[in-house]
Records
---
Amino acid sequence: MSTRHVLLGLLAGGPSHGYDLKRRYDDRFPQARPLAYAQVYTTLQRLVRDGLADVEGTESDGGPERTLYRSTAEGASELIRWAGEITPPAPFVTNEIFAKVVVSILVDDAVEPAAVLREQRAAHMARMRELTAVKTGPGADLTTVLSADYALAHLDADLRWMNTTAARLSTLTAEVTAA
């Protein structure tokens, strides 16, 4: 996910402080990788540097000084361009679980490949239960439900792959050890 474009999208609703942007990010993308405050402010500084955002002013309200940011016309155009782009499927398939299965075959009984798949399956199932509880819990809004559904679909695909791989493990072992 492009942090700069997400922040531009959040600024599209009007000028905001970094603190408010972070809070809205957490609300809108509840299952996404957490965004640190430092990353918010660093990204805002880059947006200003690149002409995609401006500093509208500062306020203190009796507390620390807070900078108010707003999107520029160039920022709005960039946001529209980015949102309209098709996100290409990943050009390379990198699967750490598959790498661990192959490596476990290579290390001759030090790690059992079937155990790798079983333990990973258990971890995926636990995460799926957590996400299901989040999306069906009290007060789950549509953003939370859709975000959890996205993660669940990916976990489900991983589980299907693990089942297929487990069924083909003897063939994979033969191929890996023969090479």
Note: The radius of gyration is 22 Å.
---
Amino acid sequence: MQTSTQTSMQTFGSRLSAAMNQHGPLCVGIDPHAALLRDWGLTDDVDGLREFALRCVEAFGGHAAIVKPQAAFFERFGSPGVAVLEETLAGLRAAGTLSLLDVKRGDIGSTMDAYAAAHLGPAAPTRADAITVSPFLGVDSLEPAFELARATGSGIFVLALTSNAEGAQVQHARQRDGRTVAQTVIDAVADLNDATPADRRVADIGLVVGATTGEDIADLGLGDALEHCRGPLLAPGLGAQGATVEDIARAFGAASAQVLPSASRAVLAAGPDAACLREALRATATHAAAALG
């Protein structure tokens, strides 16, 4: 039975749908790896990390549909880096901008429950609006994360079809029923999103499908399944990995309106000036909106 809080709570899918319509269908990354810190004239330490991250918050806060900090680039500096990550997520929240923490968590039972509690909901120390998760211990192993996301109005993005060559060893493998592992993940997310209102652009549970996987989508016959899942389709690899929004539109076909291309280096290369970063974001988002509809 739903409580009054659950009934009145705005879901992640409804918030993301509104943000995509307002700002354009684009996820922009905050990826403070060593080379980018140097390119921005910053030191490769926690001070440089903080300057980089907060400048991104200044540039993107209030101007992007969703912003995706990559946790690894903060965690490599230990607890001071995690503190900067907490500050970054809080800054995005204060700006009214959705955050997607790229952590790719995946485990079982109480461990998965603890991972979810670390990142989702108002009590989470590194609180984000959504996180990425790995289903390759079985989609059902992620139920603690799905449950907490439902209870807190948060989102989950499940890895399904990644662009790295090694991913095919698992994701393209066939099950006894003939479906690929990738399709079993997509179908499971479709079941989770089954009750999504028809007028909403995207549902609460999304998928990660690489921007350069167009041939795989076609070869594996996944186009209809992606559209049917109703979830937002995070497509990393726009720009730096060679994918264009036109490539993405062709690859995803009827599911294009659900696609959330993700650009990191292609936008971050415009830094360190916040105004230049914001202009690169705006131009990329406008282009994505025109191509994806």
Note: Confidence is low (pLDDT under 50) at residues 1-8.
